[in-house]
Predict the 3D structure of the following.
Amino acid sequence: MSGRQADCFISNVSRKRDGSVCYNGVIIGLGNVMPLITVKDLRKTYEGEDVKTTVLQGVTFSMEKGEFVAIMGPSGSGKSTLMHILGLLERPTGGEYRLDGNDVAELSDNELARLRNKRIGFVFQAFNLLPKTTVEENVELPLLYDSDPMERNGKRIAEALEAVGMTHRAKYFSNQLSGGEKQRVAIARALVNDPDIVFADEPTGNLDSKSGLQVMRILQRLNDAGRTIILVTHETSTAEHAKRILRVVDGKIVSDDPVLTRKIAKDGEESLK
Amino acid sequence: MKLTDPVKIAYRSLVAAKLRFFLTVLGIVIGVAAVILVMSIGASAQALIFSQVAKVGSNLIAVLPGASQENGPPASALGIVTTTLKNGDLDAMREKRNVPNLVDVSGYVSGSASIESPAASLQTSFQGVSPEVVSVENMEVSEGRFFFPEEEDNLARIAVLGSTRAKDLFPNDSPIGQSVVIKKIPFRVVGTLASRGSSTFSNPDDLVYIPLGTAQKLLLGIDYLNFIRGKADDLKNIDVAMSDMDSLLRNRHKIEVGEESDFSVRSTEQALEVLSGVTNVLKYFLTAIASISLAVGGIGIMNSMLIAVNQRIREVGLRKAVGAQPHHIMIQFLIESGVVAGFGGIIGIIFGVGIAFIASLIIPKLGYEWQFIVPGSSILIGFLVSFFIGVLFGLYPAWKASKIPPIEALRYE
């Protein structure tokens, strides 16, 4: 992402080799390039002792870089499982998943771990911060597993905290934070390795509406800066902050529509500064 | 991943769970302290025994009446009275040409009797000895003199008192020239001995020494010796001297070739070997028992780590979600248990050494020459074994943790 962003500064309006269109240094559109994510007939079946549970029964879609997609569906629809597979936390039992054109099935568990570390950030409903650990140390976590030791980790942590407006809480312990603050720290943790895709699994599910809006605002800004965001939610009001909504029911995609009246989160902006 | 990162992760996890960390450490602390303490006290006790044998002299040769097995105790030690050693044997050993490597030699008889002085009356052990005993046993006369050679056989009624006995019988004035009564026979005190300190076997300070012949004839009514002790001119000549004594006595006792001797010749060297064998077995046995507590500490670590793994399924899942590979998780938990055990080891070493040191302050007050010895090996072993136990018992929990799938981060509530 950052390399392509850098290319964008060469001229005011340009079309790069990979097809992305830039305007005044910001990527405003993508050309006819290889999709970031392609899934074909994706299936997932859990085998219990006697029972076979089919969660995904043939999911097909593709996603470009820079999209903001909401995966919606009632509980038990398979939307979380779909996110786990897209986020490389689980492997599908059937079908094909290509990330950047590479078949994920051909990658080893360790290679998947490395991809999660470098290219993917996760934001969970329950925040999943380490207890009795400072904000900084929580944000540092992905850097600890980075196979290429990076210089200036401190700078990256500071930048990630800056991006979510949590610099003033850097030395606090995670249990001293409010829910909204915890989720912002979790977003900073997801950002610290400069990933291409950020997965957010019901990120506002445990938050009051004001904190929820703050989180959505941050996600929208990240998307504005060019990051691909995949949001999993069961609330239409939350999903409408995205640019595109995939509705999942009973393990199948039942609709795939652009959001026509997109909500732009502004509330709570003051408290971010 | 930097080299210091796993240590950093483990350190943070441990700090985050202080109480669990403390309780787990306690098991190892007790185990290591017990091992160090046993090894230290064992070494000190061994040194005490050896120093007492050495005080008597390591180049000593003893002749005991009665035959004995090479490794078994002599008959006299089992309370069987044998009368085969005579004063003539002693005199023969004194002849330089018979046993050239023997410097000094003394006969011994012993008994106990009541002894009276103007100030006190008490029961005491006495020993009838030759004048050479001073040299043989490295005695030191503190006041007066010891026996003259001619006094061995002339029934001289004189006595030399051990330091404690001198104090018991004459608390206020010098005993020299004073009279004591043993078995109703008056004896003149001619000398006192310097204190030698108590030993495990007997306390020479508590003895009253009488010339050999006087003790045999006037006090005991016997014509044999309980044992003979002699000093070789050099440690390396002990074997020669022993075989000279052996053949001299076999000759004198007219024992045919192939026949069993009616006496045994022993050296303190041999006694030391037997003794160190016994004390080593004791020491290792006690160390083994102490090691059990170390193993219990290790099981405590395993238990605690398994609980930690279960409590932290979410954490492990999260770490995996953000890119940790199984070996990262494995190393994290192994370092945690290794650090717990290693830390416990260090504290345990401090405790063990500390208690051994306190013991070395108290035991001398009970009258033993106790040295403060901590074998360097015990410290190294204590630390390495505890660290190794931590890693060993941490292996299974760490492996279990490394198998936790990343989606557990999202599932486990």
